[in-house]
């Protein structure tokens, strides 16, 4: 039986521990963990802003100009406790969801039409060039004539605010899909809506999500502005109408409580809905830079 020759000396390597190279892995300290937590950093920034608000309002010492943060928080908790702010908030969100949903569907239909034909692309480019620069609130007088003093007028201006930024972002995302991805879809025999749903939308979802965020921001501020103008039928408006009513009776802490609610809902939607959606899609698919 032939014996296996010994390894040549120059190929013998001894295992070297990490600490021999000076690499020492120490556990993170409490402050390092805090510093690496985005939620904690943002909370700290919000507390700093609240402290600055409190200090400046206390310096002014005029509740009709700017109430302190504590006075605003007190008015906020009182209106939450009696249910008024909750009712107004839900009223605004209900109308917002109607306009946002309709605008989203129309944006997707126009974008799919643009991807299907050159005429559709020309139509989308022409319409967005015409209507996207037009502020949605500028259409409110026409909406009042066409739909009257009701939710229909607000939904109309919301659709205008939502549709064009989402359509632009979606179309840009579709055009940015690589030719390799397109050929994969064609090789699998996908066409029409199946091709859009299984290839274009997943590949272009970062751009689509950006459009959804922009559309939400436009819709939210358009809704509050529209409600500030006329509310809804019988004065049963949402947060904008709540702010307008309390301004008329000079209840400025309640006005700031309404503004605080608008900001709070915006933060919740951004950090709960859109952040979770991004984590479940873009980050999960490895499409985040």
What would you note in describing this structure?
With 289 residues, this protein is mostly helical. It is 73% helix and 0% strand. The mean pLDDT is 80.
Supply database-style keywords:
289 residues, mainly alpha, MetI-like fold, 12 helices, 73% helix, flat
Range of strand content: under 5%
Assign an overall shape.
flat
Quickly count the domains: 1
The helix-and-strand class reads: mainly alpha
Low-confidence stretches: none
CATH architecture name: Orthogonal Bundle
Taking Cα atoms only, what radius of gyration do you get, to the nearest Å?
28 Å
How many individual β-strands?
0
CATH fold group = MetI-like fold
How would a crystallographer describe the biggest sheet? none
> H/E element string?
HHHHHHHHHHHH
- Average pLDDT works out at 80
Euclidean distance between termini CA atoms: 59 Å
Q: Please identify which CATH superfamily we are dealing with.
A: MetI-like
CATH class: Mainly Alpha
Please count the helical segments.
12
Question: What proportion of the residues is helical, as a percent range?
Answer: over 70%
């Amino acid at each position: 039986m032939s014996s296996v020759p010994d390894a040549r000396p120059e190929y013998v390597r001894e295992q070297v521990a990490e600490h021999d190279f000076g690499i020492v892995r120490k556990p993170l300290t409490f402050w390092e963990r805090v510093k690496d937590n985005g939620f904690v950093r943002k909370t700290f920034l919000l507390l700093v802003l609240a402290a600055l608000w409190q200090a400046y309002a206390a310096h002014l010492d005029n509740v009709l100009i700017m109430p302190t943060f504590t006075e605003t928080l007190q008015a906020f908790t009182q209106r939450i406790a009696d249910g008024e702010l909750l009712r107004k908030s839900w009223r605004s969100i209900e109308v917002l969801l109607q306009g946002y949903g309709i605008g989203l569907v129309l944006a997707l239909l126009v974008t799919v039409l643009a991807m299907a034909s050159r005429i559709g692309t020309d139509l989308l480019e022409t319409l967005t060039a015409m209507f996207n620069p037009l502020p949605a609130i500028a259409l409110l007088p026409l909406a009042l004539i066409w739909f009257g003093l009701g939710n229909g007028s607000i939904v109309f201006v919301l659709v205008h605010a939502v549709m064009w930024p989402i359509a632009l972002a979606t179309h840009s995302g579709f055009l940015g899909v690589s030719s390799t991805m397109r050929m994969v879809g064609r090789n699998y025999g996908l066409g029409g809506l199946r091709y859009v749903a299984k290839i274009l939308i997943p590949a272009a979802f970062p751009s689509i999500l950006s459009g959804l965020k922009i559309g939400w921001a436009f819709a939210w501020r358009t809704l509050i502005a529209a409600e500030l103008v006329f509310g809804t039928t019988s004065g049963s408006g949402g947060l904008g109408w709540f702010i307008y009513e309390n301004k008329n009776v000079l209840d400025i802490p309640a006005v700031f409580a309404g503004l605080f609610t608008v900001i709070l809902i915006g933060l919740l939607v951004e950090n709960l809905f859109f952040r979770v959606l991004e984590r479940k899609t873009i980050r999960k698919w490895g499409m985040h830079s």
